[in-house]
Design a protein that fits this description.
Radius of gyration: 23 Å
CATH class of the largest domain: Alpha Beta
CATH superfamily of the largest domain: Ribonuclease Inhibitor
CATH topology of the largest domain: Leucine-rich repeat, LRR (right-handed beta-alpha superhelix)
Largest sheet: 7 strands, mixed
Number of helices: 0
CATH architecture of the largest domain: Alpha-Beta Horseshoe
Strand content: 25-35%
Helix content: under 10%
Length: 331
C-alpha cells in the first residue's frame, strides 16, 4: 500500500536545538508474549529524548509495533535497544520533532512508512543487519541529507525515500537488485547517483522530479528502465543506456530539458510513448543496435538527429519522425 504524499515545503527549516530532556519510561505501552516484549504505543504528549529499555519485566524487547510512536510529535531522539529485530509499519510516522534515532545491529526489517513524514530527521544509520526496507519507509524526511543502503538490502521499495528534498548523497549497496517505483521521487537536491551492477530493474518514476540530478551511471546489469523513471531531471546533459537494457518505458526521460545527447545500447527492442518528449536541447541520439519498436511521439517537442551503425537492421530514412544518418556522418 502506498501512502499519500505529505504536505511538505522544500524550504522547511531544521528544528532549532533545544536542551535534551529525557522522556519518562512509563510513557511506553507494551505487550508481553512468552519471553518477548512488543512496544505497542506511547503517550502522545511525551517529549524529549527517549531510550527504550532492553528489558521490561524481565523480558527482552524484540519489536517496535505498528504505529507505536505515531504522532509523538515532541520526541526529539529515540534509542532502540539491542535485541529489537523489527520496526513495524508506521512506527514513527509523523514524529516531526525527531532529529535522530539509533537503530541497533539486531534490526532486520524496517516496516512500511516507519519514518513517514519525520520532517526534521537529519541523519539515520541503517545497519548491515537490515534486509528489508518497506514502502514509503522514509517518505517526506525532508531534512535527511545522506543515506547509505547496506549490501544486505535487496530492494529499495516503492517511495522508500521519496520527498527527501535535501538528500544530497545516496550510497546504494551491492546487494540491491531492484529500485522500485517512486523510490527517490522528488529528491530535488540529489546531484549524482551511481547504481551498482547488482541492479536489474529501475522502476516507474524512480527518479522522477530529481530536478538537480546532473549525472547518473546505469550499469550493464540493468534490463529495464520504467515509465517516467527520469522525468523532470532537468539538469541531466547526457545519458548512456547499456547494452543490457531491453526496454525504455513511456516518458522515461520526459522533459529532461538540458539533455543534449543519449546513446542507446544494442539490446533495446522497444522505446515507449513520449520517452524523450520535450527534451528541447536534444540534438543527438545514437543507436548501437537494430531499430527498436518506437512508441507514440517518442520525440515530441524535440528535434534530434538519429545516428546508427552501418550494419544495423530495420532502419529507414526516419525513425520516430526524425532523420536517421550513419554514425560515420556525425559532425
Amino acid at each position: 500500500m502506498m501512502r499519500p504524499e505529505p504536505v511538505l515545503k522544500p524550504e522547511e527549516p531544521v528544528a532549532e536545538a533545544k536542551p535534551v530532556q529525557e522522556a519518562p519510561i512509563n510513557s511506553i505501552k507494551y505487550k508481553i508474549t512468552g519471553d518477548e516484549v512488543n512496544i505497542t504505543g506511547c503517550d502522545k504528549k511525551v517529549s524529549g529524548a527517549l531510550t527504550i529499555p532492553e528489558i521490561i519485566e524481565g523480558k527482552s524487547v524484540t519489536s517496535i509495533g505498528k504505529e507505536a510512536f505515531q504522532y509523538c510529535r515532541n520526541l526529539t531522539s529515540i534509542t532502540i535497544p539491542d535485541g529489537v529485530t523489527s520496526i513495524g509499519q508506521g512506527a514513527f510516522e509523523l514524529c516531526i520533532g525527531l532529529t535522530s534515532i539509533t537503530i541497533p545491529d539486531s534490526v532486520t526489517s524496517i516496516g512500511e512508512g516507519a519514518f513517514w513524514g519525520c520532517s526534521n530527521l537529519t541523519s539515520i544509520t541503517i545497519p548491515d543487519s537490515v534486509t528489508d526496507i518497506g514502502d514509503s519507509a522514509f517518505w517526506g524526511c525532508s531534512n535527511l541529507t545522506s543515506i547509505t543502503i547496506p549490501d544486505s538490502v535487496t530492494s529499495i521499495r516503492n517511495s522508500a525515500f521519496g520527498g527527501c528534498y535535501r538528500l544530497t548523497s545516496v550510497t546504494i549497496g551491492n546487494g540491491v537488485t531492484n529500485i522500485a517505483n517512486y523510490a527517490f521521487r522528488n529528491c530535488r537536491s540529489l546531484t549524482s547517483i551511481t547504481i551498482p551492477d547488482s541492479v536489474t530493474d529501475i522502476g516507474d518514476s524512480a527518479f522522477y522530479d530529481c530536478t538537480n540530478l546532473t549525472s547518473i551511471t546505469i550499469p550493464d546489469s540493468v534490463t529495464s528502465i520504467g515509465g517516467y523513471a527520469f522525468k523532470f531531471c532537468l539538469y541531466l546533459t547526457s545519458v548512456t543506456i547499456p547494452n543490457s537494457v531491453t526496454r525504455i518505458g513511456n516518458g522515461a526521460f520526459y522533459s529532461c530539458t538540458r539533455l543534449t545527447s543519449i546513446t542507446i545500447g544494442n539490446g533495446v527492442t522497444s522505446i515507449g510513448n513520449y520517452a524523450l518528449a520535450n527534451c528541447t536541447s536534444l540534438t543527438t541520439v545514437t543507436f548501437l543496435g537494430d531499430a527498436p519498436k518506437a512508441g507514440k511521439e517518442v520525440f515530441k517537442g524535440a528535434t534530434p538527429t538519429i545516428y546508427r551503425k552501418t550494419e544495423a537492421k530495420g532502419w529507414g530514412d526516419t525513425w520516430g519522425k526524425r532523420t536517421v544518418k550513419l554514425i560515420c556522418e556525425k559532425p
